[in-house]
Specification:
- There is one protein chain.
- By secondary structure, this protein is α+β, with helices and mostly antiparallel strands.
- An eight-stranded mixed sheet has the order 36-37-39-38-40-41-42-43, with helices on both faces. Strands 13, 14, 15, 18 and 19 form a five-stranded antiparallel sheet that branches.
- A hairpin with a 5-residue loop joins β14 and β15.
- α7 crosses α8.
- The longest helix is centred in the first third of the chain and has 19 residues.
- It is globular and about 75 Å long.
- The N terminus is likely disordered.
- InterPro entries: AB_hydrolase_fold, Pept_S9_AS, Peptidase_S9_cat, Peptidase_S9B_N, Serine_Prot_S9B/DPPIV.
- This is S9 family peptidase.
- It comes from Flagellimonas aurea.
Length: 719
C-alpha cells in the first residue's frame, strides 16, 4: 500500500468516526420543540421613532403586558398596560393613530386562515380606563384616528361605538350568514386576496368606506366534522369553485356625523381587492379587477359626492398581482410596484396618476417595499439583486439615485424600520446560520447593537449530523433552474444513493432559498442521515426570476412544472452516485398535485411519490386563485383536464402515498377522494391516510408526529 492510499483510508476513517460520534435527528425531537428557533417578539415602532412596543406574554402564570422600549438602548422604559384583576389577559393589541388609546384582544378564536372572533377592550393610556366594546365576540375592531370611536363587525353587520358616550350605532342591518356580509371579506377574498377587514376610516374619522359582499348565489359548501359527539356535525360556508359564481361586491360610504350610507358606482367592477384612503380625507383609492385578473384599475373616489375617476390602469397578458405596496406621499402622489418592464420594480406616480419615473430597474425583483422617508427622500426595500436565492435590504431616492446596500451578509435579510426611519432591526439567516436580530442605523446600515441570535441552537446542532445545502443550478428544458442538494455526512462518491426530491412549484413560489431551516428541512436532515440524497429544484413558473419565467405556466398549471421535475430527476440520475432505480418525490398542497402528476406522467423516472393535501383537479379549487392562472374551466377545459391526475390513474406503476385532512376548508378532501376512486377503478394499489377534522396544515396534538412517522416509514420501505 502506498502512502497516498494509506492517507486516504486514514482520513476516511477519521471522517467516518467523527460522523458516527454525532447523533441523528429524531422525529420526537423535531416535533417536541428540541430545535425550536428563537425569534424576535413582534414589535411596533411608536410615532416618536425612538421607541417601540412589544407584547410580552407568559403561560405560567398566565399574564400579558404591553411594554415600551428604547431603540438606542433596547431597554424597557415602561409598562403601558398589563393583565391584572382589572385587565383580562390579552393576546394582541393596536394603537389609535395618536397613541392615546390601545385596543386589546382577549378570548380570541380562529374562523379561517386570517379571520378571528374575540372579546375586545379599549384602554385609555392617560386615564387608565378600560372599556369593553361588546359583551359578545366581534370581528376586526378598529379605532378611529383620534381614538374617540371604534368600528367593528358583528354577525356580518358594521357597528360604530362612541367611547365617550358609551353608545353603539348599528350601521348596516342586512347582514346575514350565507347571504350578505358587511365590512369583512368572504372566504375566497380572505384566502386569496389576503385580507379580512373590509372597511377603512378616513384620516379625520368623518367617514368609513366599506365593502358589501352578496354571496347569495355562491355555491354552498359543507364538510363533516366528526368531533367526539354521537353524531357528526356539518361545517358550512360559501366557497366559489373555478367557473362558479362569486360574491357580488360593492363599495359604500358611511358618513359618521349624519349616519347616512351612500353607494359608490365603480362601473360594474368584478373584484375590489383593495381600498385605501389618501392623506386628503375626501379621497379614497380603490383597486378593481376583471374576472381574469389581467386588468387592474386604480380609482380615485371623491367622498364628497362619490364621483369616480381612473388614476391609472395596468394590464398583463396573464395576470396582475395584488399587493399592499401602494403608498401615498404627503401630496398624494404615490409609490407603486409593477412587473411592467418584465421584473417587479418600484414606480413613482403623480397625484394625477401620471408616471413620474421608474425608481428601481434591472434584471432582478423587488421582493418587499418597506416605506418612504420623505424628510430625506429615501425609499427602503428588499430585493434579490445579490442573487435570486438571497435577499438584501437597500435604500434609494425617489428619483432612482443614491442607492445603498444596507445589509452585507449573504443570505436572507429583512428589515423592520422605526416610524421616522432612523433605525431598523435586521433579521438575517442563511442555510448555515440560524436567525440573527441586529439594530442598525437606517442611513448607512451601520450596526448599532446585536439583539438576539440562536447561538444556543447552533451549538446544539454541532452534536448532530447536519448536511449542508449545496446550492447550484441545473440546466433543464433550456433554463438554468435553482437547485439544492443534501448528501449524507459519510457521502462516498463511489456508492449509489436513493434520490428523494421535494418541491412546491406553485406560481411565484420559491423553495430553493438561502435561509435557515424549517420543520420540513429537519425532516429532510433525518432522511439524509439515513442514507438518502435530498434535492429540490425550482422549475418554470416559480418566482423571483422575472415575469416571463413566472408566467410561462399560464393556462397550463401542472404541465411545464411537471416536465421540469421529471427531466431534472432524469438528469440527476445520470450522476454516478445516484441510483436511478430509486427516485422518489414528495410535496404538500400544490406540491402534492405535482408529486402525483410526476409519478404518473414520469412513471419511468419515479419509483415512489408522497402527496399531502393535494389538488387533483383545479376544477375543485377556488375562483380567485385558479382563474388567475387558468381562466375558467368553461374557457380552458383542456388546461384543467389534461393535467388532472385522476384522469389517468392507469399510469401508476410505483409506490404512492396519499394523505389529507378531512377538515381542510382550503383544498377539500374531495380532491383526495376522487383520486382514490380513480385509482380503485383502475385497480391500482396505493397507500392512503385521512386525518379526521384536520385542516390544510394537518397538525394538533400528536398529529404532526404521527404524520411524519408515516411519511418516514413509507420512504424507508419504498425507496
Amino acid at each position: 500500500m502506498n502512502k497516498q492510499s494509506f492517507l486516504f483510508l486514514f482520513l476516511l476513517g477519521v471522517v467516518t468516526f467523527s460522523t458516527a460520534q454525532k447523533k441523528k435527528i429524531t422525529l420526537e425531537e423535531i416535533f417536541g420543540g428540541e430545535f425550536r428557533t428563537e425569534y424576535m417578539d413582534v414589535l411596533r415602532s411608536m410615532n416618536n421613532g425612538t421607541q417601540y412596543t412589544i407584547l410580552n406574554t407568559s403561560r405560567s402564570p398566565r399574564s400579558s403586558s404591553l411594554d415600551k422600549y428604547d431603540y438606542e438602548t433596547l431597554q424597557k422604559v415602561e409598562t403601558i398596560v398589563a393583565s391584572s384583576d382589572a385587565v383580562p389577559y390579552f393576546s394582541s393589541y393596536s394603537f389609535s393613530d395618536d397613541e392615546s388609546q390601545v385596543l386589546l384582544a382577549t378570548e380570541v378564536e380562529p374562523i379561517f386562515r386570517r379571520s378571528r372572533l374575540g372579546i375586545y377592550y379599549v384602554y385609555d393610556i392617560a386615564s387608565k380606563e378600560l372599556v369593553k366594546i361588546s359583551e359578545v365576540k366581534i370581528q376586526e375592531p378598529t379605532l378611529s384616528p383620534d381614538g374617540s370611536k371604534v368600528a367593528y363587525v358583528l354577525d356580518n353587520n358594521l357597528y360604530v361605538m362612541d367611547l365617550a358616550e358609551r353608545t353603539t350605532k348599528q350601521v348596516t342591518t342586512d347582514g346575514n350568514k350565507g347571504t350578505i356580509i358587511n365590512g369583512v371579506t368572504d372566504w375566497v377574498y380572505e384566502e386569496e386576496f389576503g385580507f379580512v377587514r373590509a372597511f377603512e376610516w378616513n384620516s379625520d374619522g368623518s367617514k368609513i368606506a366599506f365593502l358589501r359582499f352578496d354571496e347569495t348565489e355562491v355555491p354552498h359548501f359543507s364538510m363533516d366534522v366528526y368531533g367526539t359527539e354521537l353524531y357528526p356535525s356539518q361545517h358550512e360556508f360559501k366557497y366559489p369553485k373555478a367557473g362558479e359564481k362569486n360574491s357580488i361586491v360593492t363599495l359604500h360610504m358611511f358618513d359618521v356625523a349624519s349616519g347616512a350610507i351612500s353607494n359608490v358606482d365603480l362601473d360594474g367592477a368584478y373584484y375590489i381587492p383593495r381600498i385605501k384612503w389618501m392623506h386628503n380625507p375626501d379621497h379614497l383609492s380603490v383597486q378593481t379587477m376583471n374576472r381574469h385578473q389581467n386588468n387592474l384599475k386604480l380609482y380615485d373616489v371623491n367622498a364628497k359626492d362619490n364621483s369616480v375617476s381612473v388614476l391609472f390602469e395596468e394590464t398583463d397578458a396573464a395576470y396582475v398581482d395584488i399587493d399592499d405596496d401602494l403608498t401615498f406621499l404627503a401630496d398624494d402622489s404615490f409609490i407603486w410596484t409593477s412587473e411592467a418592464d418584465g421584473y417587479n420594480h418600484l414606480y413613482l406616480y403623480g397625484r394625477d396618476g401620471e408616471l413620474k419615473n421608474q425608481i428601481t430597474e434591472g434584471p432582478w425583483e423587488v421582493t418587499s417595499y418597506y416605506g418612504y422617508d420623505e424628510k430625506n427622500d429615501r425609499i427602503f426595500y428588499q430585493s434579490v439583486e445579490n442573487g435570486s436565492i438571497n435577499r438584501g435590504v437597500y435604500s434609494i431616492s425617489s428619483k432612482g439615485k443614491k442607492k445603498k446596500e444596507l445589509s452585507t451578509e449573504e443570505g436572507t435579510n429583512s428589515a423592520a424600520f422605526s416610524s421616522d426611519f432612523t433605525y431598523y432591526i435586521n433579521t438575517y439567516s442563511s442555510a448555515t446560520t440560524p436567525y440573527q436580530f441586529t439594530l442598525h442605523n437606517a442611513s448607512n446600515g451601520k450596526l448599532i447593537k446585536e439583539i438576539k441570535d440562536n447561538s444556543a441552537l447552533e451549538n446544539k446542532l454541532e452534536g448532530y449530523q447536519i448536511a449542508p445545502k449545496e446550492f447550484s443550478t441545473i440546466n433543464v428544458n433550456g433554463y438554468d433552474l435553482n437547485m439544492y442538494m443534501m448528501k449524507p455526512a459519510d457521502f462516498d462518491p463511489n456508492k449509489e444513493y436513493p434520490l428523494f426530491m421535494f418541491q412546491y412549484s406553485g406560481p411565484g413560489s420559491q423553495q430553493v432559498a438561502n435561509r435557515w431551516m424549517g420543520t420540513r428541512d429537519y425532516w429532510h436532515q433525518l432522511l439524509v442521515s439515513e442514507g438518502y440524497i435530498v434535492a429540490c429544484v425550482d422549475g418554470r413558473g416559480t418566482g423571483l426570476k422575472g415575469r416571463d419565467f413566472k408566467k410561462l405556466t399560464q393556462k397550463e398549471l401542472g404541465k411545464y412544472e411537471v416536465e421540469d421535475q421529471i427531466d431534472a430527476a432524469k438528469k440527476l440520475s445520470e450522476l454516478s452516485y445516484i441510483d436511478e432505480d430509486r427516485t422518489g418525490i414528495w410535496g404538500w398542497s400544490y406540491g402534492g398535485f405535482m408529486s402525483t402528476n410526476c409519478i404518473l406522467k414520469g412513471n419511468d423516472t419515479f419509483e415512489m411519490a408522497i402527496a399531502v393535501a393535494p389538488v387533483t383537479s383545479w376544477r375543485f379549487y377556488d375562483t380567485i386563485y385558479t382563474e388567475r392562472y387558468m381562466q375558467t374551466p368553461q374557457e380552458n377545459p383542456t388546461g384543467y383536464d389534461d393535467n388532472s391526475p385522476f384522469n389517468y390513474p392507469e399510469l401508476l406503476k410505483g409506490k404512492y402515498l396519499l394523505v389529507h385532512g378531512s377538515g381542510d376548508d382550503n383544498v377539500h378532501v374531495q380532491n383526495t377522494m376522487r383520486m382514490i376512486e380513480a385509482l380503485v377503478q383502475a385497480n391500482k394499489q396505493f397507500d392512503w391516510a385521512i386525518y379526521p377534522d384536520k385542516n390544510h396544515g394537518i397538525y394538533g396534538g400528536n398529529t404532526s408526529l404521527h404524520l411524519y412517522t408515516k411519511l418516514t416509514n413509507f420512504v424507508k420501505e419504498n425507496l
